[in-house]
Amino acid sequence: MSELVLICGGAGFIGTNLASRLLASGTRVLVYDDLSRAGVDRNLQWLKDTYGSLLQFELGDIRDARALRQCLRDATAVYHFAGQTAVTTSLVNPREDFEINALGAMTLLEELRALRFPIPLLFTSTNKVYGDLGSVALRRRGSRYEPQHPGILANGIDESCPLSFHSPYGCSKGAADQYVLDYARSYGMPNIVFRMSCIYGPHQCGTEDQGWVAHFILQAIACQQIILYGDGMQVRDVLFVEDLVDAMVLAQDNATRLGGRAFNIGGGPGNVMSLLELLEIVGELDGQAPSVRFDDWRVGDQRYYVSDTRAFQSVTGWKPRTSVRDGVAALHRWLFENNETARLALQRGVA
Predict the structure, then answer these.
(1) What's the average pLDDT block by block, 10 residues per block, for the chain (351 residues)?
(2) N or C: which end of the chain has fewer CB within 10 A?
(3) Is 304 a catalytic residue?
(4) What is the pTM of this model?
């Protein structure tokens, strides 16, 4: 029987892009998703319309052991993206955040452990496991923060950075991160963790709490005000989703020798921007500056985070290929062509 890849949370932004890549290569994909996130039903329909019977779908919750057991019966590899994705939501309902992110990951790990033969698992963690990075001394340069330490400035934050979980979301994702790694150590399972920075690209249902690159673009298209929490000079390395998918496929192809390791994955020092700098790019694409107001800093927000991706590059040869400006322009085009908010703005003649 041909390969079958299980993607938990496969109707989400990253899952849809990964599923599309695998399906286009002729690989069968089983998408497991509860479709709770707004907009993901459209992603799923697009996958069905594009790839037909090569795609399988199972509606279910990541905490449902019986359903996961059935999905794993014929799977040859697993990607785990399902989760609660927003710090703000975790602060409102920390118990549910824990149950989805930590208990959900444990449920999947136990079902994987019960298999007769181990199969590779790639889990998407977050840079939030490193906390607010308040110990990294920063200085202001133009419209962004940058680290004073020359090594961090040149390369970013590497995997030796101490873990420091901030916010319930950071705790739940961090707990899952550590369980995935420990199951690799304790049970010899080929598990890999990606601690990810900011990912953006087509099929992203951007909101204020998650998917901020798409959210900024959508707000600007609709002539709606964008809220910046803090001063807007906080810096992130952004990674175009196609480059992330390249890394994920490479990780699974090399799971036997990479199992048990965590890697920082993002755009790296070559794809860095502050929030204010993104607004400048969006203003250039739209022909007018977005409307902005500022609010207080949020819990655990990092003023600077850039991934040091050299560890993963050294073992796979992977590097990001898409520049910030090219990637943001590509997402901007996709949102105009595919997003209902953008289409309505065009019809009203506001964009």
Answers:
(1) 90 97 98 92 96 97 98 97 90 96 98 96 96 95 97 98 94 97 98 97 81 90 91 97 98 96 98 96 92 89 96 98 97 85 46 33
(2) N
(3) no
(4) 0.94
Integer angstrom CA distances of residue 237 from 25, 103, 128, 132, 169: 29, 29, 14, 15, 20
Two structure tokens written together for 142: 């133009």
For domain 83-348, the CATH class is alpha beta
- Structure token digits, residue 339: 């997003």
Answer yes or no: are the C-beta atoms of 245 and 21 closer than 8 Å.
yes
Among 79, 169, 200, 305, the active-site one is 169
